[in-house]
Specification:
By secondary structure, the protein is mostly beta strands. The protein has helices at about 35-40, 425-430, 435-445, 465-470; strands at about 15, 20-30, 75-85, 90, 95-100, 115-120, 125-130, 150-155, 160, 165, 175-180, 185-190, 195, 210, 215-220, 225-230, 245-250, 255-260, 285-290, 295-300, 305, 315-320, 325-330, 345-350, 355-360, 365-375, 380-385, 410-415, 420, 425, 505-510, 520-525, 540, 545, 550-555. It has one domain (about 5-555): 6 Propeller (Neuraminidase). It is about 5% helix and about 25% strand. Strand 17 (about 245-250) and strand 18 (about 255-260) form a beta hairpin.
Length: about 600
């Protein structure tokens, strides 16, 4: 597509769902001054953002060619919309609406930040985390890192403001994994990476390099409160980024988080551009971590079945059986170690059996994209790029939307039929979710539930995990257990109830850095709430949030900067500066302070 060639490296959206309207926040770079408006309104998934400030070039490989638009690259910042109450084709450019966002004025509207997360309740959007791009100059791009904070967009007035955050202070990270409750206004942000272009303190320090961060944040939108929790039990290092995370609200007192994939590294250890796909950092999909929000406990559980190759920078959504006997986390795309390992199959991780099931083998390869659950049974894929050659992080603009399946960076996957489509039907998307025979053939039951396989082969890693997920006190367990020791618990704070006229159906975080430059994208998908308010819905946001979903976004680390000879690591290592997660403490770099468990109230 010719228009696609005017910009480079499509990025990733993040967002949430509620009443009938989709907002797409696309901050970026148009190749030509006259193309800026066209890129903003027609191709919001195919834009870059870049700043002229020298320093860390997170996500930029020095061997990559510069953007073709130089020296005339033009910064662009906007919010685009899609009406989800009407059917559309991904080939129809008129699907996009437009809302102005003055991203160059940091005093009146949010600056362009990459690889953060977007959260939402019934009245507002919230932008958390991210960093600015410094790889290449662009007219109008931010040149100074803004202060830490959270920007709030009022859906009623259409006005931006800096949110009055309480609780632990906000300190930005990037490419963490995020998820949001569908029944209350509580969101979660896991792990991530600290780097100079995200942290005002390190912005002016020469030679600083990225490093991974520990911690799980909760954000209660009703009270604008951040809280901070331990991730010591999530894996060997207690860190995670660029992977996948899902929230299942119907399990436990306040729900559970399921996290897997992406990378993990020693907290505080300097990283370079090749570390992101190094074998030593890979969090293999043969193991997942489960977090009981109510009692603040991490468990580790092995998986079986058709286990996907390791990946990062993919996306996922979650749906539950009507009878809650099983929960299906749909995983699509992402980068592997090479082009050949970056498959485009769709997989399901079934909970509580922890069985991987391959449900579609069309191999529509994609990475740096975002997924969001639309209605009851449709996975909307937005943004991204098609893998090419053997470079796990190519910036080939010809791969952005050359296939009809992802025209304009949009693609739809039916969770009922397990098939791809280039068109969206709001009536079909609202039909009840049914378990596909591909899944029930493995876990038992039928289209409405009744799963008979509710225990992993060999048993759960710990009895407490099995009881949590199944309610059965006599579950089978492995001889050797793996899980964290419960910390002291307190009464979880209450999240703001959602309005009775509609509920947030999902939020996915983690927006994605580019290799040559970066942009922040946010997809806010609105749809009507079903009459059955008792049925919980949940969606994964980046991680590696980006991941503002937000992720996966959250969800990749093609943003790690090269460490040239003589470069210095960030001085804020665990032994040198700032609170860290040490024995008996719950400190994390993203925030300063301790907290009680996050929680929420179900809608009535």
């Amino acid at each position: 597509m010719a228009a696609c060639e005017k910009v480079l490296a499509p990025r990733r959206f993040s967002g949430f769902s509620a009443e009938g309207l989709a907002f797409v926040s696309a901050d970026g770079l148009a190749s030509e001054p006259q193309a800026a408006e066209t890129a903003a309104s027609v191709l919001p998934s195919h834009k870059l953002e870049s700043g002229p400030q020298a320093g860390s070039k997170y996500g930029h490989d020095p061997t990559d060619p510069p953007p073709a638009c130089l020296p005339n690259c033009v910064f662009d910042s906007d919010v685009d919309t899609i009406d989800l109450s009407e059917p559309f084709s991904n080939a129809n450019t008129s699907v996009w609406g437009h809302i102005s966002k003055n991203g160059t004025n940091q005093n009146s509207s949010p600056p362009t930040m990459n690889d953060g997360s977007m959260f939402a309740d019934d009245s507002s959007l919230y932008l958390y985390g991210g960093g600015i791009s410094v790889a290449y100059p662009a007219v109008g791009a931010p040149t100074v890192l803004p202060p830490d904070g959270v920007w709030q967009y009022d859906l009623g007035s259409g006005q931006w403001s800096m949110a009055a955050i309480s609780g632990v202070p906000v300190n930005r990270s990037i490419i963490g994994m995020s998820a949001q409750s569908s029944s209350s206004s509580v969101a979660y942000y896991l792990g991530g990476v600290k780097e100079p272009a995200s942290d005002p303190y390190f912005w002016t320090l020469p030679g600083a390099t990225p490093y991974m961060d520990q911690g799980l944040l909760s954000f209660e939108e009703g009270s604008l409160t951040f809280q901070n929790y331990s991730t010591a039990g999530i894996n060997e290092y207690g860190t995670a980024a660029a992977g996948f995370m899902a929230l299942i609200e119907s399990i436990g007192t306040y729900g559970v988080l399921i996290a897997f994939g992406g990378i993990s590294n020693v907290p505080g250890k300097p990283m370079n551009v090749t570390d992101e796909y190094g074998l030593s950092l890979q969090w293999n999909l043969s193991s997942v971590s489960v977090y009981d929000i109510g009692v603040q406990v991490w468990y580790q559980q092995t998986t079986t079945g058709d286990i996907p190759r390791w990946r990062y920078s993919g996306c996922s959504v979650i749906v539950s059986a009507p009878d809650q006997s099983s929960h299906s986390i749909y995983v699509f795309g992402g980068w592997g170690n090479s082009f050949g390992e970056s498959d485009g199959n769709v997989y399901v991780l079934s909970i509580p059996s922890f069985q991987w099931i391959r449900v579609n083998e069309e191999s529509n390869q994609r990475s740096r994209h975002h997924c969001s659950l639309i209605g009851s049974n449709t996975m909307l894929v937005v943004g991204g790029i098609t893998p090419s050659y053997n470079n796990p992080r190519p910036d080939d603009p010809s791969g952005c939307d050359t296939t009809s399946m992802f025209a304009q960076g949009l693609g739809m996957f039916s969770l009922n039929n397990h098939s791809w489509s280039t068109t969206y039907d709001p009536v079909g998307a609202a039909a009840p979710y049914q378990i596909h025979p591909n899944i029930s053939a493995i876990i038992g039951g039928n289209a409405t539930g009744g799963a008979s396989l509710t225990t992993p082969p060999g048993g759960f890693s710990q009895k407490a995990l099995g009881v949590l997920l199944t309610g059965n006190p006599n579950v089978e367990t492995l001889e050797s257990s793996a899980g964290s020791t419960p910390r002291a618990t307190t009464t979880p704070p209450k999240g703001k109830k959602v309005l009775s006229t509609g509920s947030i159906a999902g939020i996915v975080g983690s927006c994605v850095f580019g290799l040559l430059a970066s942009m922040a994208l946010g997809l806010m998908l609105y749809f009507r709430r079903r009459q059955n308010s008792e049925r919980f819905q949940a969606a994964e946001m980046s991680g590696q949030i980006a991941r503002f979903e937000l992720s996966d976004g959250k969800d990749k680390v093609f943003e790690l900067c090269a460490t040239a000879s003589g470069e210095k690591p960030l001085p804020a290592t665990p032994d040198e500066k700032g609170p860290r997660e040490l024995e008996g403490h719950e400190w994390v770099h993203e925030v300063v302070g301790e907290a009680s468990p996050p929680g929420y109230e179900s809608a009535t």
